[in-house]
Amino acid sequence: MPVEAGKRKKELRLTLLRHRQSLTEEEVATASAAVQERVRRLPAFREAGVIMAYIGCRNEVQTADLIREAIALGKRVALPVTDTRKKALHPRVISHYPEDLIPGAFGIPEPKASCPAVAPEELDMVLVPGVAFDREGFRLGYGGGYYDRFLLQIRESAATVGLAYRFQVVDTVYPEKHDRRVRFVVTENGVIEAVAGVGKEG
After folding, report:
1. What does the buried/exposed string (b/e) look like for 142-171 if buried means 16 or more CB atoms within 10 Å of the residue's CB?
2. Please, which contacts does 192-195 make with residues 24 or more away whose CB atoms are closer than 8 Å?
3. How much is the CA Rg of the chain, to the nearest whole Å?
4. CATH class, range 3-201
5. Which of these, 54, 133, 190, 191, has the minimum number of CB atoms within 10 Å of its CB?
């Protein structure tokens, strides 16, 4: 990536993280509830038997209600265990939320070692956090590349869903060759489906 584009990427990350951190607890709860409701309405969610979610931290879009509902519906719900040495994510299935969680890397709760592992190719849907997304489905993360590497391991037919606040959807995230796209970006305002490089909101 050219130096200027790399600089813009870092500036965008810093600006949006500051904005997200400025959100009040009520703003996070209200927007997160709307995002989770839109995810519930996705046919891909209703049809998914195995879902990998994430635990929202540092004012990310929250997922707790969606996790509880998916478990109640009889879906297998996995959460990532972070391997900081290999910079990898390893999904494990939880049966009870939040009882099956312990403190993990970066202070983010993750499944206990006793929770069964699930192969990435078994996942039907992956809920993906991010700092920003564009309408083509490209994602700006925290810079570690964990999700870019993980998304290479899942089935092409699996639904990848980026969860974001509306201000996190930007014109470009300055994607690089290794950056992976998500199929959907869901905000409190709507669902953007990235099709053939064009983001269609509905």
Report:
1. eeeebbeebbeebeeebbbbbbbbeebbbe
2. 192/133, 192/135, 192/137, 194/135, 194/136, 194/137
3. 16
4. alpha beta
5. 190
